[in-house]
Amino acid sequence: MAGKILIAEDEALIRLLLKRSFKCFQKMGVDVLVAGNGKEAFELAMNEMPNIMFLDIMMPEMNGFDVCRKIRENSALRNIYIIILTAKSEYLDKEEGFRAGANEYLTKPINPDDLVGRVKSVLDIKAL
Fold first, then answer.
1. Under DSSP, is residue 65 helix (H, G, I), strand (E, B) or coil?
2. 81-127 pLDDT, tens per residue?
């Protein structure tokens, strides 16, 4: 099994929590990449072509909505499965996320086991 997960999150503690949650996939050959701001996230997406991306909205240098839009505008990146993972829970924020091209919009806090399940589904992993 090969694949790539990109975590785009400016909060170091949340990045660490997500990376640890996805450690089970690393044992299967799945790379877990991390970005601390929106610009870095877009550049990593361009260079690494992840299968799935967890994208925060409120990040320095480029917000998550803009990152999502730029990814969807790029034909080489359009197949990245984007899950917005944010503290912004207002209806208008969710609507904006889907308009930007997100596949899913989840609000924090969230159970890491739920995120593992989503990765399994997107990467079509039957068992860990």
1. helix
2. 999 999 998 999 999 999 999 999 999 988 888 999 999 988 887 76
Reference 59, options 84, 94, 89; nearest CA is: 84
CATH number of domain containing 65 = 3.40.50.2300
> DSSP assignment, residue 78?
T
Contact between 36 and 7 under an 8 Å Cβ cutoff? The reply is no
In a domain, 128, yes or no: no
Residue 46 lies in a domain: yes
SS3 category, 3 = strand
- Whether residue 91 lies inside any domain: the answer is yes
Boundaries of domain holding 39: 3-123
Q: Which residues pair with 25 in a beta bridge?
A: none
Listed in sequence order, the residues at least 6 apart from 73 whose beta carbon sits closer than 8 Å to its beta carbon are none
State which H helix or E strand residue 93 sits in: helix 91-100
- How far apart CA 97 and CA 121 sit, in angstroms, is 21
DSSP 77: T
Q: How many domains does the chain have?
A: 1
